[in-house]
Amino acid sequence: MPNSSQFQLILSLLTLLLQFTQSHGGALQLDKGNFDSIIGNNELVFINFYADWCRFSNILAPTWDETADKVRDLFPDEGRVVVGKVDCDSESSIASRFHITKYPTLKLLRNGQATKREYRGQRSADAFASYIKEQLRDPIKILQNLDEINELEETKRTVIGYFERQDSPEFELFRKIAVNLKDDCQFLAGFGDTVRSMHPPGESIVAFKASITKEDDAFTGSLSSYDELSIWATERCIPLVREITFQNAEELTEEGLPFLILFHDPEDTESVKKYTTLVHSELADQKQNINFLTADGIQFAHPLHHLGKSKKDLPLIAIDSFRHMYLFPDYKDAYVEGKLKAFLQDLYSGKLHREFHYGPDPETTSEAAQQDENEIPSPTEAIKKREKPTTPPESTFKKLAPSKNRYTLLEKDEL
């Protein structure tokens, strides 16, 4: 029988073991019962979407649990960061919600919103922890004097907050927005005497600058409303029309929307302005269905070649659906009201795909119905007309997307 001192030692060791187990329990298992609560109450949630039958998932599992313990030690504050995991077989609704197509997929959520890119760096506990450290780095530059605003990179989109105090609830909300949008905008903040001339006494101001040379666009909503400020800042930091480059092509393809692209000569800024104006005036309501982009036609000569075009044909407009590329027939017609929108509708309806393969659809307009009866082809003739297939240019931008075959696919094929 152990004596009292030995008994106390054993009890202390058991207590320490229990505390260690509670604080070093590996990654948090997420399911439909706790998922929304966890992602809604933590600044960062780093998630491993896995399947038990997947060999690659099983290889990663112990490293992921080690990562969770390491991150928990580094950032113990509640509400800061959680390393979690989702069993996609048992939680298929969560997997579908995040468009999981292979296992394991690692995604980072900031304040409940998934970041644009999934994690593709080194798969070690140290690498994962370093990634989390970088993600938690404060994205806000604190102004020491107002002259620093004029020293910023001229073309950078910038959101600036002028606050009375750093411990104000308005600044805490501003910081959350900055964490979510730090990849798209730079964020600055000033406090007290440093920025007193920039805002009324006792009233905080948040403003956006598209570039240093442009006037401020002030936020006029409530600085106590996360949703209002988030929508306002997102619309400005992620513009309706964006430029695609080799650096951002991967994250743009990950958004999963087809591209409507203006290919232009890099010296031709006028066509970019004209296209941007057209998109804002006629196509803004389509932003949930398609990405509006501009592309340097010299850098992206390869897609032009697939379309049978070259530098001398610029500017031109095309759709990349990630299956095929479709050239807008006549660039000048794009600025005829309704023409470009009709082109998009033909994409959504499948008409562009059909016509590339089988020729034009049979005429069904009232104008065609009024033509001489002998000029209207019979259904049999129409079918014959469409029997000869054509080959549309294949998508070139899908090749810039992250490979869907790097790990295990949903069909349980090991690659």
Structure overview:
This protein has 415 residues and is α/β, with parallel strands linked by helices. Helix content is 35%, strand content 18%. It is built from 14 helices and 17 strands. It has helices spanning 4-23, 35-40, 55-74, 92-97, 125-135, 169-181, 226-237, 249-254, 269-283, 301-306, 339-349, 351-358, 366-369, 379-385, and strands at 28-29, 44-50, 81-87, 102-103, 105-110, 113-114, 140-142, 158-163, 186-191, 205-209, 217-218, 241-244, 259-264, 291-296, 316-320, 325-327, 408-409. The strands form 4 sheets. The chain has a 5-stranded mixed beta sheet with strand order 1-3-2-5-6. A 5-stranded mixed beta sheet has the order 7-9-8-10-11. α6 (169-181) links the parallel β8 (158-163) and β9 (186-191). α3 packs across α5 (125-135). The radius of gyration is 27 Å and the shape is globular. Mean pLDDT is 83; it is low at 14-23, 364-390 and 411-415.
**What is the overall silhouette?**
globular
Low-confidence stretches: 14-23, 364-390, 411-415
Count of extended strands = 17
Strands of the widest sheet, in order across it, are 1-3-2-5-6
Computed structural class: alpha/beta
| Overall pLDDT | 83
Radius of gyration, CA atoms, in whole angstroms: 27 Å
Q: Helix content range of the residues, please?
A: 25-40%
